[in-house]
Amino acid sequence: MTAPSASSRIIKTTYLTFTALIAAWLGAWLLKVRLEESITWLAVGAGSFLYWTAAKILIWIVPAVWLIQRSGRTIHEVLGLSRWKSWLAWGGGIGLAIALTGIIPNYLAGNRILPDQISFPLLNMLVIAPLFEEFLLRGAIQGNLERAYPFWTANLITSVMFLILHVPGWFFMGVLWENFANPFGGALSIFLVSLGFGYAAHRSRSVLGGVVAHFLNNLF
After folding, report:
1. Structure confidence at residue 5 (pLDDT)
2. Among 220, 71, 75, which Cα is nearest to 135's?
3. What is the 3-class SS of the chain, one letter each residue?
C-alpha cells in the first residue's frame, strides 16, 4: 500500500480539525446559554463580547495556528505583511465592490451608510470577525486546501465551511430558517461574499487581503 502524500495528509487533518471545531463551537453556544441562566451579564455588552472573543481564540485561532504549522507554513508567510500594497489593493477593491451592494440601496432609501455609534457588537463585527474568521478560513483552511486542489475548488470548499461556521449562531439566535428561506442577505449572500474574500486573499497572497475585504463588507 502506498503511503499517503503530505498534501493528502494535511487535507485529511484539515477536514477532521474543522469537524471537531464545529462540535466545539456548538458546545460554546450551549455553555453560554446555560451560563446566562445564572450569570446575566454574559448575555449582552462587554460580558458577551469577552466570552465570544475568548471562545474564538480557543476554538478558532489555536487550531488555525496548528493547521498552518502542520502544513509547513509560517504565520509570517500567511500574513504577508510585506505585501501590503497587494492586500490593500485586492482587499480594498473587492471589499468596496461587495460593499456597493449595500451602500447604493441604503443611499437610495435615505438610510445611514456608516454606523453612528461604537458598541461591542460593532467592535465584534468590524474587528474580531474579519480578523479571526479570515485567519481561520482563508489563512489556515483555504491555504491548506490549495496544497491539493486548484484555487477555485479550495475557495468553494472553504466558502461552504464559512457558511457552516455561521449555522450554530443562527440556530441559537432563532434566525436559522430565516437565513435559508431568504438567502439574499442570508445564507447565499454569506457564501458569495466568502468567495470574494477568498479571491482577495489568493490574489494578494496574504490573509490580510481577505481581512480588508471582510472589514469593508461588514462596515457597510
Report:
1. 81
2. 75
3. CCCCCHHHHHHHHHHHHHHHHHHHHHHHHHHHHHHHCCCHHHCCHHHHHHHHHHHHHHHHHHHHHHHHHHCCCCHHHHHCHHHHHHHHHHHHHHHHHHHHHHHHHHHHCCCCCCCCCCCHHHHHHHHHHHHHHHHHHHHHHHHHHCCCCCHHHHHHHHHHHHHHHHHHHHHHCCCHHHHHHCCCCCHHHHHHHHHHHHHHHHHHCCHHHHHHHHHHHHHC
Q: Residues 157-186: pLDDT tens digits?
A: 999 999 999 999 999 999 999 999 987 888
Residue 39 is placed in which grid cell? 450569570
Predicted TM-score of the model (pTM): 0.93
